[in-house]
Amino acid sequence: MPAKIEFQQSASLNQPQSDICFGSGSNSVSFRFTKSLRLLCAADFKPVFDDAPLRASHQYFLILARFNQQAQPRLGLVMAKKHMKLAVERNRMKRLIRESFRTQQEALSGLDIVVLSRKGMDSLSNSEFSQQLNQQWQRIFKKLRHHRLTSQTQNPGAKQKVDTDAKATDH
């Protein structure tokens, strides 16, 4: 008859971990990569693939971004087995992308983003890949700023009109 083996867990493992937040009050920022920050199904990915006004292309990956109607950014990853044969390499790249996205999420607010792999992506070291990814994020930020500036100059009174309409309906 086999002996019964019992495992003891420390008290800290039994309690749920709270979000790591910086700041105070409603301005605090959580740096966790929760489900609300992910593109989960084909219906989430399709609008980004169909119409992505913000793009950053690199030899080893492509970033597509589209505006969403939410306050937080969302990330989707497409790591093709065709481009990276080993699951260990695909998972390493996904971890690096998620970490980079997590740290940049405040600047990417309001975007749905898809990162697609290309052949040779797995040949980059972690530091090389992180550096290349940061350069592409900078390109996205630059295009985002340009897009927001051009949309504001084309419709300078649009925001005021919406605000006055909202006030009129409140009364």
Topology:
Elements: H1 11-14, E1 21-22, E2 29-30, H2 42-50, E3 54-57, E4 61-67, E5 74-78, H3 87-104, E6 111-117, H4 126-154, H5 158-170
Parallel strand pairs: 5-6
Antiparallel strand pairs: 1-2, 3-4, 4-6
Helix pairs in contact: 3-4
* Secondary-structure element pattern, one letter each: HEEHEEEHEHH
State the helix count.
5
Report the β-strand fraction as a percent range: 15-25%
Which architecture per CATH?
2-Layer Sandwich
Structural domains: how many: 1
The level of helicity is 40-55%
Radius of gyration: 21 Å
The CATH C-level class name: Alpha Beta
Please name the CATH topology: Ribosomal Protein S5, domain 2
Would you give an account of this structure?
With 171 residues, the chain is α+β, with helices and mostly antiparallel strands. It has a single domain (33-154), classed as 2-Layer Sandwich (Ribosomal Protein S5, domain 2). It is built from 5 helices and 6 strands, in the order αββαβββαβαα. Strands 3-4-6-5 form a 4-stranded mixed β-sheet, sandwiched between helices. Strand 5 (74-78), helix 3 (87-104) and strand 6 form a beta-alpha-beta unit. Helix 3 (87-104) crosses helix 4. It is globular. It starts with 10 loop residues before the first helix and ends with a helix. The model is unreliable at 7-26 and 160-171 (pLDDT under 50).
Q: What would the keywords be for this entry?
A:
171 residues; 4-stranded mixed sheet; 43% helix; 6 strands; Ribosomal Protein S5, domain 2; two-stranded antiparallel sheet; single chain; disordered C terminus; alpha+beta
Can you describe this structure in just a few lines?
This protein is an alpha+beta fold. Helix content is 43%, strand content 16%.
